[in-house]
Amino acid sequence: MIHRKPTILVGAALMIGLLVGTRWLAARDRANRFASTTSPIRTSPVAIHPHELLESAARHYSSPRPLWAQITMSPPPDAAYPLPAYEFAWRPPNRFLLRPTSASPGDASMISDGEHLYTSMSLGPGQHFYSASAAPSSIGSLLDHPDFGLMPAGGLDMFVILPFLAGTVDESLLEGVTQVEHVGMADDAGVRCHRLRLTEPEGVSELWFHADGPPHLRKLVIPGPDGETISFAWNDADPPASLFDFTPPLGAREVSSIWDIDFGEGDEAEPHPLIGMPAPSFALPLHGGAGRRLDLAAGDEVVVLDFWASWCAPCMRSLPIVARVAGEFEGRGVAFYTVNIQDTDETISRIREKRSFDFPIAMDRDGAAAAAFGADAIPLTVVIRRDGIVVAAHVGAVPNLEATLRRDIEAALATEQQKPGDD
């Protein structure tokens, strides 16, 4: 499976950069110790007390009432790419819907009818798959379900609403927040809103709540030139029961797990143009590297590169496989680096924490390295011989990736160093 976008400049297309985002995934483990292990949060001395507003919203959402909303994500003003829209519905205790309103190949949908959780994915015409498992008993157990990891890493940030549903606002949403302020009122398409500003060491974000009627969350705003906005349009009506019914697409194949889909042959019908050519050289900073850089022109090792972005679900699926295979060659002159395309340092920090990624991540902030390697579709996994010649390049989550990559690395190690152009 391949994720393509109109231009390589969209590596961060789905990463919202939520500064208070997905940390609720471990909130239940932290809840009992939160009060004694965190610093007091300073609040602004204004007429509207920000914590009272948060508590009001928490009471509103924690009551056993159905919810139904359309979620849209807006990129920065100068961005040349669209972001997806989702339909979200919740009927306590455990009926749930999350699906993109206009799905691209590789996008996943999740529907719980109260008895079963159905995860579905389409890879293109005639390539529909779904899996069924026991329905999670609550929002908390839904967040622990492995299929929830199929959601794009950044797309998960749209679930800023879930700490309110799960009753973990203080333990998760505000973890790491050093100041909460009510910074005034604002109008959003005729809806009067309270604005709360949350400050963390990494930056600030804003939560907007309806000022009239129920204190619905209206939007999440990440200020600044790289900021984006997630907006919630709430339906007055309850979601109909039929919304949570799942009917497999015509010709869809049931699989034990969406994670185990064989993505089929054909993604690489033509050899990658870089195979047999000298690898483009570049020097990129390493995330969290305190000044360290990846210099592809230096060294005398077989190099495995994996180009990826946070919005790319197939990348999230293949990255651990590539890392595991490369790790098998530790001490044998094989270096493994991932190259992230245009995500922020804060985004990568959150992904590392959530997914326990401990491999080196080079930051291709302007997409120039990806462009040099022709990575207009990702994931792209490249194997480079000691003499700098590209010997393998795999686009997409290819079948039998583990065995294929292992064979490629063994072949690269076995080949004597050659100069470009030698027979």
Report, as a whole number of angstroms, the end-to-end distance.
35 Å
Provide the β-strand percentage band: 25-35%
Strand order of the largest sheet: 2-9-10-11-12-13-3-4-5-6-7-8-14
Low-confidence stretches: 1-46, 264-269, 417-423
Helical fraction equals 10-25%
Number of beta strands = 22
So how many helices?
9
Q: Could you say which structural class the secondary elements and strand pairing correspond to? A: alpha+beta
Mean of pLDDT: 76
Please summarize the sheet with the most strands.
Answer: 13 strands, mixed
Radius of gyration (Å): 23 Å
Net shape: globular
Key words describing this protein structure:
5-stranded mixed β-sheet; 423 residues; 22 strands; single chain; 13-stranded mixed β-sheet; disordered N terminus; 9 helices; alpha+beta; disordered C terminus
Structure description:
Helices cover 20% and strands 30% of the residues. The protein is of the alpha+beta class. A hairpin with a 2-residue loop joins strand 6 and strand 7. The protein is globular. The N terminus and C terminus are likely disordered.
Brief summary of the model shown:
This protein has 423 residues and is α+β, with helices and mostly antiparallel strands.
How do the strands and helices of this protein lay out in sequence?
Blueprint: E1 3-4, H1 27-37, E2 42-43, H2 50-62, E3 67-74, E4 85-91, E5 95-100, E6 108-113, E7 116-124, E8 127-134, H3 139-143, H4 162-166, H5 169-173, E9 179-188, E10 191-200, E11 203-210, E12 217-221, E13 229-234, E14 253-254, E15 283-285, E16 293-295, E17 302-308, H6 313-327, E18 334-341, H7 345-355, E19 361-364, H8 368-372, E20 377-378, E21 380-384, E22 390-395, H9 401-414
Parallel strand pairs: 2-9, 8-14, 17-18, 18-19
Antiparallel strand pairs: 1-20, 3-4, 3-13, 4-5, 5-6, 6-7, 7-8, 9-10, 10-11, 11-12, 12-13, 15-16, 17-21, 21-22
Helix pairs in contact: 6-9
